[in-house]
Each structure stands twice: as structure tokens, then as C-alpha cells.
């Protein structure tokens, strides 16, 4: 049998291969504790006793034992966070936000009785290097701490109702032009010119020995020999390409897929004329994207580069390209782009190509038929409409009455 057997009907009760029962604890960390019995009835009673002991332990935590906000945060991390019915990722975000708060001594060491909602907002606003969105996560984390304290009668209810969120302005996205797009692809594929970093041979290298060149260039003997071979052959450097990064960038731009969707995509989902996008965000996120010529050429290039691809292989060769993309944007001289901005780039190019909004919404996985896309890309549509108006032509024959 397996080492652990879950006992149904009793939360946290397991039976070990040695015949004894154990309870799985989540505080202070995931671990197993022996109940020192091989009888199910005794194990259930031991769990009830353990729960009562834990509940009584919470009663010891009161406002007399806790004074500063930092102490309340610690009590929440020890006894409250793991009980929240939220995802593991959200719990990690709360921990990270509380860590930022605890570093601000003017806030974390303050007596909670002297804190007010306005003071909390002002102190969070002074945390350096945090965007308003990150500050709002700090507000969310503190609210969870306060809810925990109120539920356990550690503080009076209603004293911190006025904690406000910070205003988050929508990020203005400046998408690259066609020329800048080509430059980005080139920078992603060849992120650096290696000859700039190489130590070159001195002008009078032919008059010096290998040993003298080693000392003069401060490199190894093998490096000196490679430089001599490069000069004699006329090849001064060879660019080291990173096509998988460029392919991932192009794929996100050409499909408009969310990063999570693209990461899960396998070659089994790539059919002759369409891509099956198995989205998980909503019902409408499961969709089909037609394979147009430029996308088909990209898929063929990826397949040829890898040699052989199996149906179970992932289409994306790189799951994260944000760092490489940031460096490429800096080199091209444009504002940095995030993964999700490439989805906007796809939609923008679709609008400029004359694709109707309901179709674009369907490709993006929107369930509203294009209402949201109309709001987001209205400026692009207006600009495209003005440009297209230049194509209007009417009869040129003058008619006189």
C-alpha cells in the first residue's frame, strides 16, 4: 500500500503504512503529527481534542498580548492565513505585501489603537518603489489582517472601515510601428553583437609570440589562437542567435493568445486550418483561431528549426520572454512591452486590417460579441476609418444643369 491513506469523512486524518493514524497539520507548516493509536475511534477523539486545544490557544491571543500592527500581522500569518479559502498564489501575494508593510517601521511598529484608516493609507503611500496596484494589494492584505483580528475579538469591529484603495490609471500602451517591430524581432533573435565584447588582436600581433599576446591581451592561449584564426579566415565574429525567443514573441503577436493559453498549447492543437485554444478563463475562452498564411509560415519555421515535433510537445519554446523583450525595447528605443501587450498588438493589427469587431472578439475569447473590444480599440478604429476614407472615389464626370 502507499505510505499514506486518506481517511474519508474526517478532515486531515491519514493512516500510515505502519498502521498508526496521523493528522495532517497546516500550521505553522504542512506536517504530519502522530495520534499514537491504531484504532479509528481513538484517532477521531484525538483529533477533536487537538482542535479544542487549538481553539483554546486562540483565546490566549487577545488585545493585551498584541499591541503593534506587526504583532497582529504575525498572529494572522501563524493562525489565519492558511484558513482562508483563496488560492495558493493569492496567499503568496498577501505574504509578500505584508513583508513590504513590515519593513515600514512607522507603520508596522505603531500601536494598532493609535492607527486610523487615513494613517494606514498615508504610510502605505510612502512605501518606495511600489505602483498603485501593488499598494492596493497591501491594502487588501491589511484588510485580511483586520478581518482576522475582528473575527477573533482581538479588536473592535468597524474601526478600520475607511481604508481606501489607491487610484490606478490605465496604462497607456504605445505599440511599435512596422519598422520597430522588425527591429524587435532582430534584437530578440540576436540579442548582442559578440564582437563588441571580444578582445581584439593588437595591430602588431604578427610580430609577437603566442606567449607575448597572452600577456598583452590578458587572455588564455586558446583564445589567442581563435583570434588569429578569425583574422586569417576573415570571420571576426559569429552571431549567436536565439530564435526560440523570437518565435515565442512572434507567436504571441500573431495569435493574440493569453500567455497562460499559449503555454498550454501543444502541436496536437495545431490542425491544418485552425488552432484549438483550450482557454480556461471563461466558457468563451475555448475557441478556434484560423491559421492565416503568415501564422502558417511561422509554425512551419518553428517545426523546421526543431527538426521533429511530437503532438504532445509544447508549441512555445520559451514560456517567459519579458526580460529579453524589455532589453530589446530599450535597444530599439521604445517603451517596454509586456506579454499582454502583444495581445493588444494582435487586436490592433486586426482592426487596421479591416477585420470586423465581433470576429476579433471571437478570436480573443470575449463573450460580449465585441462590446469590450469596441471600447478598448475605438481610437484605433477611428484612426483606421480616417485612413480608409482616402480610398473613397465617386464619379469624376461633371454634370451641369
CATH homolog superfamily of the largest domain: Intergrase catalytic core
Strand order of the largest sheet: 1-2-3-4
The count of domains is 4
> How is the quaternary structure best described?
single chain
- By CATH reckoning, the class of the largest domain would read Mainly Alpha
Order of helices and strands: EEEEHHHHHHHHHHHEEHHHHHH
How many helices does DSSP assign?
A: 17
> Mean of residue pLDDT?
82
Q: Examine the secondary-structure arrangement and name the CATH architecture of the largest domain.
A: Orthogonal Bundle
Global shape = extended
Rg, nearest Å: 31 Å
> How far apart lie the N and C ends?
101 Å
Number of strands: 6
Question: Which residues sit in consecutive blocks of at least 5 with pLDDT less than 50?
Answer: none
CATH fold node name of the largest domain: hpI Integrase, Chain A
Amino acid at each position: 500500500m502507499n505510505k499514506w491513506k486518506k481517511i474519508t469523512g474526517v478532515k486531515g486524518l491519514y493512516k500510515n503504512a505502519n498502521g498508526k493514524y496521523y493528522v495532517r497539520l497546516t500550521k505553522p507548516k504542512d506536517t504530519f503529527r502522530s495520534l499514537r493509536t491504531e484504532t479509528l475511534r481513538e484517532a477521531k477523539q484525538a483529533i477533536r481534542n487537538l482542535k479544542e486545544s487549538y481553539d483554546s490557544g486562540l483565546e490566549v491571543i487577545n488585545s493585551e498580548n498584541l499591541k503593534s500592527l506587526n504583532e497582529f500581522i504575525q498572529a494572522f500569518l501563524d493562525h489565519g492565513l492558511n484558513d482562508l479559502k483563496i488560492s495558493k498564489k493569492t496567499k503568496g501575494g498577501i505574504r509578500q505585501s505584508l513583508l513590504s508593510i513590515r519593513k515600514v517601521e512607522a507603520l508596522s511598529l505603531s500601536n494598532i489603537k493609535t492607527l486610523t484608516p487615513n494613517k494606514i493609507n498615508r504610510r502605505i503611500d510612502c512605501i518606495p518603489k511600489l505602483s498603485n496596484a501593488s499598494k492596493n494589494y497591501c491594502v487588501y492584505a491589511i484588510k485580511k489582517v483586520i478581518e482576522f483580528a475582528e473575527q477573533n475579538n482581538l479588536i473592535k469591529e468597524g474601526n478600520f472601515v475607511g481604508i481606501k484603495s489607491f487610484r490606478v490609471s490605465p496604462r497607456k500602451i504605445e505599440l511599435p510601428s512596422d519598422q520597430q517591430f522588425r527591429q524587435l524581432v532582430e534584437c530578440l533573435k540576436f540579442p548582442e553583437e559578440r564582437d563588441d565584447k571580444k578582445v581584439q588582436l593588437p595591430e602588431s600581433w604578427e610580430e609577437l609570440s603566442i606567449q607575448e599576446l597572452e600577456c598583452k591581451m590578458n587572455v588564455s592561449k586558446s583564445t589567442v589562437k581563435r583570434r588569429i584564426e578569425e583574422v586569417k579566415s576573415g570571420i571576426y565574429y559569429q552571431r549567436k542567435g536565439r530564435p526560440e525567443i523570437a518565435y515565442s514573441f512572434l507567436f504571441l503577436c500573431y495569435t493574440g493568445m493569453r500567455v497562460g493559453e499559449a503555454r498550454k498549447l501543444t502541436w496536437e492543437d495545431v490542425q491544418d486550418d485552425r488552432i484549438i485554444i483550450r482557454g480556461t478563463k471563461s466558457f468563451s475562452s475555448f475557441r478556434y483561431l484560423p491559421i492565416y498564411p503568415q501564422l502558417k509560415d511561422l509554425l512551419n519555421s518553428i517545426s523546421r528549426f526543431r527538426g521533429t515535433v511530437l503532438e504532445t510537445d509544447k508549441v512555445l519554446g520559451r514560456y517567459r520572454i519579458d526580460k529579453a523583450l524589455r532589453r530589446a525595447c530599450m535597444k530599439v528605443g521604445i517603451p517596454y512591452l509586456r506579454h499582454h501587450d502583444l495581445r493588444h498588438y494582435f487586436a490592433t493589427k486586426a482592426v487596421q486590417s479591416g477585420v470586423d469587431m465581433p470576429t476579433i472578439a471571437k478570436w480573443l475569447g470575449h463573450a460580449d460579441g465585441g462590446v469590450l473590444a469596441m471600447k478598448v480599440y475605438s481610437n484605433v478604429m477611428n484612426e483606421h476609418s480616417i485612413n480608409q476614407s482616402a480610398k473613397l472615389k465617386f464619379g469624376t464626370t461633371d454634370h451641369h444643369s
